[in-house]
Design a protein that fits this description.
The complex is a heterodimer of chains A (153) and B (720).
Chain A lengths: L1 E6 L2 E6 L6 H8 L18 E4 L2 E4 L12 E3 L7 H12 L9 H14 L5 H8 L9 H16 L1
Parallel strand pairs in A: 1-5
Antiparallel strand pairs in A: 1-2, 3-4, 3-5
Helix pairs in contact in A: 2-3, 2-5
Chain B lengths: L2 H6 L8 H6 L15 E4 L2 E3 L5 E5 L8 H13 L6 E5 L22 H28 L7 E3 L2 E4 L2 E4 L4 H5 L28 H5 L15 E7 L6 E6 L9 E6 L5 E6 L2 H10 L1 E5 L8 H13 L4 E2 L5 H7 L5 E9 L11 E6 L4 E5 L4 H12 L6 E5 L15 H12 L6 E4 L2 H5 L8 E9 L5 E10 L9 H4 E2 L2 E2 H4 L12 E7 L14 H19 L3 H7 L6 H16 L9 E7 L2 E12 L2 E12 L6 H21 L4 E2 L2 E2 L17 E6 L14 H16 L14 E2 L1
Helix pairs in contact in B: 3-4, 10-11, 15-19, 18-19
Classes of the chains: A alpha+beta (153), B alpha+beta (720).
Chain lengths: 153, 720
């Protein structure tokens, strides 16, 4: 079936089977490979993208439910919040293997857009669904706090 | 210095054909003088813009090798860090072998340790070439040339690294370059050198094998036996055919599974799940975890199969017969899955004379050897293009090259022409074996009235990792697989009258090295036992550890020094309700102090203080990151991870049942690196072994509950 999508500000037409998770359309059909497959059951957050600016797990989000809504992937991040978050990630050298980090960043950007100065508990609540097997969490927290501070400035 | 480099000399012009491909330059095969790059040696090339490319012989699974190896070259070159580029080496077990293993393989926390002088000399060779080239071009003597931060200068003349390629081409390479003395280091030991992979990994641009897409490629998922060791009898395609995007299905030649080919990953998964397969379980594992635990107990009840220390069990027990205090305990450990974030996958395609893998490849030499055998090729006909690996923790290298062989068989079964991408789901991963082995330890320690050790009787039952593999000759001695006992049989503690028996558990379930290998259980046992002994004898556990080390011996002294560093940074006081553990592994010394809070059996690890001595600290921030990550990796594993079976079938399927460490579990972590001028040693694994027992000892200090059966959730604790 043909689906019309808006991804990273661009209109896209893709052929996909009904029920296909958005993740696989993004990766296998649109070749936007920055969004990762980690578990397929919305339990690790590696596949996090923005749906109308808010984080969703694309591995468990059927293509049929996307409609005309705006999808943003890591490749499409360009506003100030995103740039500040990515800069903080670099400054703190958060990454190790890096495979989960697109998802971590999408969750962090989603958090800071909605809540520019989150408490520790709010950061934890927003990030608890994003797994990092390298356990870079200490630096993820540090980078989010740094980004929040820099956004305030 | 590697013989390879000295013999090879200065690669240039047409002779550099393979080198051109190696560093990913134009594939024309010719390096035209004055218009291209200088390929100084297999590790370093410099282009016209003065950019330096370092060829990385180890894969990057997050442990920081790309940054570490690049630092070694940049240090000797006095290069500008911003102008240092990286490229992964092709499969070439001669040029790019791990100097400790003699094969191209990353593991055992050896990437920096084995490359330390090799990459520095490669950089020094390039520096020497630049100095002499500039000297020729400017007509000044070499000792007037200075190089600082990527700038070559003499008097008021300056140039970048790419300006004297023509002069360099005319020179002969000096393969005995002078390397720096530690006091001349500008980059090594610098607190914060930005990681080489940060930018690509924060923008979604970093390429993993999972991201590879070749023209005409089919996606493959494999329907494997629900019980380890089952073989395909027959299969029915009717339901799979109804899945849109399904292409075909073929039994793998080894009958270990059915490959399902599809037009995209999702269709491959769906069609694979829809396939009905009948299995021959005659050679399969059919036991459940409880039966296996009972068998482990039987193994430690019976006399050991092998004895690993000169003292016999009888002699150890005789030495303890008048003991004032006895510590006796059994410890049990579950199977653990590596569960790297990037599920296993690789792409295989046909080349002019063989095949090429696209893979986050941990052991190119293993892949070449095994796949060549399976497909009837020469090793040189198996190429490997290495990508970033989304974690591994050991999983991406094994002697069977399991997932590469699956891909090769699927490729072959489809005719050997069409590129195929094999993708594992998370369920495939958690249920796919190659686990950290289950094991059981039984120990008895005797102390006199003064709290001095009199004897120690120890029995380990474990499923050996290396027995029956090509590594057997290296690792198995007198029947004992060293990976079952490392960290115990070679403990730095000076234990009198210590006996150690070993019994092998047998199963067809494949087991594998898992971040820190045998140390992942032996350290837990040793450090819990020392804590138990200290409690029995009413001695401070830190003081007891120090008293058991031979501080006249270099290793004992370094371990003691690391213990004191952790003690002091945490401001440890006798009687504190906190946990201590230390361990020596991969030639690195780590000591950990753990602070936990426990409310109604709900545990939170509040803070870990970690001291580490890993020799020269090349990238202190990467070392710090490995201590943080190693500790975090250990935490979830000891707290709540286990792979269990029912009638031979794995119960856990995905992260909801195999919960990794999450954001909210993470303690605050403080790391102190002990200053050292010794050769650098491993950092990827050594934080894992002492973290578990430090936490267990802290839980004991706070609650009085001694955890000896892992994961800790078995004792009724929860973690948040």
């Amino acid at each position: 079936m043909l689906y019309k999508l808006k991804v990273n500000g661009k209109a896209q037409e893709v052929e996909a089977e009904p029920g296909t998770p958005l993740l696989w359309v993004i990766r296998d059909e649109l070749d936007l490979t920055g969004t990762k497959f980690g578990c397929g059951v919305a339990a690790c957050g590696a596949c996090t993208v923005h749906f109308q600016g808010a984080p969703i797990r694309s591995c468990s989000f059927p293509i049929d439910a996307v409609g005309e809504n705006e999808i943003t992937t890591i490749e499409g991040l360009e506003d100030k919040t995103a740039k500040v978050v990515q800069a903080a990630w670099n400054e703190k050298d958060v990454v190790q293997c890096g495979y989960c980090q697109s998802g971590q960043i999408m969750s962090a950007v989603g958090l800071l857009k909605q809540n520019p100065s989150p408490s520790d508990a709010e950061i934890e609540a927003a990030m608890q669904g994003n797994v990092c097997r390298c356990a870079t969490y200490v630096r993820i927290k540090d980078a989010i706090k740094t980004a929040a501070k820099n956004l305030e400035a | 210095m590697s013989q390879t480099i000295s013999r090879r000399g200065f690669l240039k012009s047409a002779a550099a054909g393979s080198a051109v491909m190696m560093v990913g330059l134009n594939a024309g095969g010719l390096l035209a003088v004055g218009s291209s790059d200088i390929v100084v040696n297999p590790f370093v090339s410099i282009n016209q813009d003065g950019e330096v490319t370092v060829v990385i012989k180890h894969f990057e699974m997050g442990q920081g090798t790309t940054t570490g190896l690049t630092t070694l070259v940049a240090e000797e070159l006095d290069a500008d860090w911003q102008k240092m580029k990286i490229d992964f080496a092709p499969a070439d077990g001669i040029r790019y072998k791990n100097l400790f293993f003699g094969a191209q393989l990353t593991g055992g926390s050896t990437a920096i340790a084995n490359s330390y002088m090799q990459y520095r000399e490669a950089g020094a060779m390039a520096r020497d070439l630049l100095v002499r080239s500039a000297s020729t071009a400017w007509g000044v003597s070499p000792n007037q040339i200075q190089i600082r931060n990527g700038v070559i200068s003499a008097g008021n003349k300056t140039a970048h690294f790419g300006e004297f390629i023509k002069e360099a081409m005319a020179l002969k390479l000096n393969d005995k370059p002078v390397t720096k003395t530690p006091d001349q280091f500008n980059l090594i030991g610098k607190l914060k050198l930005p990681r080489k992979d940060s930018q690509a990994k924060t923008t979604g641009q970093a390429m993993f094998a999972m991201d590879v897409k070749l023209p005409g490629m089919l996606y493959v998922a494999i329907h494997r036996s629900p019980k380890f060791g089952g073989k395909v009898s027959s299969f029915n395609l009717d339901d799979a055919k109804k899945i849109g995007g399904f292409v075909d299905a073929k039994v793998l030649a080894n009958k270990a599974g059915v490959a399902v080919y599809a037009k995209n990953t999702w269709a491959a998964f769906k069609a694979r799940d829809a396939l009905k397969v009948s299995w021959d379980f005659s050679g399969a594992e059919t036991r459940g975890t409880e039966e296996m635990r009972a068998e482990y107990k039987k193994l430690v009840d019976e006399p050991a199969m092998f004895n690993g220390l000169p003292t016999t069990k009888e002699a150890a027990n005789t030495a303890m017969q008048d003991a004032e205090h006895l510590v006796e305990a059994d410890f049990q450990f579950p199977f653990l899955s590596h569960a790297p974030m990037e599920p296993l996958n690789c792409v295989i395609e046909k080349t002019a004379n063989g095949v090429r893998f696209h893979d986050g490849c941990q052991g190119p030499s293993l892949v070449q050897g095994v796949v060549a055998y399976v497909l009837g090729l020469e090793q040189s006909q198996v190429e490997v293009k290495t990508f970033y690996a989304g974690g591994s923790f050991g999983r991406r290298a094994n002697v069977n090259s399991d997932y590469h062989v699956e891909a090769a068989l699927a490729f072959q079964a489809y005719g050997g022409q069409t590129p195929v991408k094999l993708v594992w789901s998370r369920e495939d991963d958690i249920r796919g074996g190659y686990y950290r082995p289950m094991s059981m330890h039984r120990a008895k320690i005797g102390l006199d009235a003064n709290g001095q050790l009199l004897g120690w009787d120890h029995h380990v039952a474990a499923q050996p990792i290396m027995k029956g593999t090509p590594f057997e000759a290296m690792v198995v001695h007198n029947g004992i697989d060293h990976t079952s006992v490392e960290g115990l049989s070679d403990t730095l503690y000076q234990v009198p009258n210590m006996s150690m028996g070993v019994s092998d558990f047998k199963s067809v379930i494949p087991v594998l090295w898992w971040r820190s290998v045998g140390h992942s259980h032996t350290a837990f046992v040793m450090e819990s036992l020392i804590d138990m002994a200290a409690a029995k004898a009413k001695r401070d556990p830190v003081e007891l550890r120090l008293s058991l080390l031979d501080q006249a011996d270099a290793k004992g002294q370094r371990m003691a020094n690391t213990i004191k560093t952790a003690r002091d940074m945490a401001n440890w006081k006798e009687g504190d309700k906190r946990g201590f553990a230390s361990h020596f592994s991969f030639n690195t010394y780590v000591a950990v102090v753990a602070d936990v809070s426990v409310k109604a059996k709900q545990v939170h690890v509040d803070k870990l203080y970690i001291a580490v001595d890993c020799g020269v600290a090349i990238n202190p921030d990467v070392i710090k990151a490995q201590m943080e990550g190693g500790a975090g990796f250990a935490l979830g594993a000891i707290a709540r991870n286990e792979v269990t079976l029912d009638k031979g079938e794995v119960i856990e399927a995905n992260f909801p049942q195999y919960q990794p460490t999450r954001f909210g579990d993470m303690p605050e972590i403080e790391v102190e690196i002990v200053r050292s001028n010794e050769a650098p040693t491993g950092v990827g694994e050594p934080a894992v072994p002492p973290t578990g027992p430090a936490i267990a000892n802290a839980i004991y200090a706070v609650t009085g509950v001694r955890i000896t059966d892992l994961p800790m959730t078995k004792a009724g604790f929860t973690f948040s």
